[in-house]
Amino acid sequence: MTATTSSCSCDEYAATSVGRRGLLRGAALLGAVSTFGTTVVTTSQGTAWGAPASSVIVVLSMRGAADGLSLVVPHGDPTYYAARPRIAVPAASLLAKDAMFGLHPALAPLVPLWNAGKLAAVHATGLPVANRSHFAAMEEVEDADPGSSARVGWLNRLLGADALTSPVQGLAVGSAAAPASFVGTQPVMTMPDLATVTVAGGDPANPQDARLRSLRTMWGSSATAMGSGVRTSLAGSAALKQATAQPDRSASYPATGLGQALSAVARTLRADIGVSLVTVDQGDWDMHTDQGTATSGRLVTNATDFAKAVAAFSADLGPVADKVTLVTISEFGRRVAENANAGTDHGWGNVMFVAGAGVKGGRYLGTWPGLQNTLDADLAVTTDYRSVLAEVVASRTTASTAAVFPGFRRERVGVMQGQ
């Protein structure tokens, strides 16, 4: 989990965001941690690397708890408008409307994907039991193994369920620390951006580099976890350097953290170096105050960034798009009623977007529970978020969903082809 800066007044969110040092301390308990420059690899035992990935899952975390009731508006439920007299999104401005739902107008860049059947929304998703603490909810969502004392994330278990074929098969982009979903015994590469992927004092593109030769001589045959870590780091750095040979189309993305992270992801995936699981973050969704109207304000800013970045990412992938599926997640949603500060407080149910390869899109999915207009009313959860993730995993990988989500029996969502 990466540290996220929020402009809201939620002290719990700011105080409990986990920084790079804390994350690495937790990872070190599970395996060796090798750091070269700003690239970090958490490692297990040595692995042989080989073929490119046949499919890719990109998990986009909307940190701070996005307001799903604003992103996908239940305009057919009159309680929505009664509960939000100042911040409700008018039905007339919604996009891709059906009888119950419509997309926020700031999501206009995503409408072509929706119309092409490449984007779907699953509403009333979330944790099986409400948890309004950012820190605890993030941990629970990303561990996805309630009751377990093992600190292993669901994406790390997914890496373990598939045969590793690349030192960069699991890749966290946009930070020097991996999210909790990647923490575990399987090797994971993290990078703030492609430009910072380096072995300090060495040139991964030059196999004759003296520093790299020294590292290979020292650790090349070591059976220790550190030896495995060094070898993985060297191989991963060299693999990611291949991505810099791909055209840089970052100018077509928003000049934001999310936009530039997704640009780096697309550039890396076009290099086809074996990446199969990717995480990126978008922060600042914790809008207790001044959430804004349908045309301006903090939510419009974030939603516009999200929509433009994902649309640019889809276009940038080119032929690789046929094997890339993107899914969004947030730790929880927001309350039904707006608060006295024209914002929304911590809630429960939310919306998840699924886009790209294998998606049965152009549809709103999930069971709508109806809304109540009381001070503490939540959007109830009718679809466990793990059912959405498990359907993506079952559709796009050969892994057992039982291994990835222990003890969980998924329900059919219908968002992915063949599921």
From TrEMBL:
Protein source organism: Nocardioides abyssi
Superkingdom assignment: Bacteria
Protein's name in the database: DUF1501 domain-containing protein
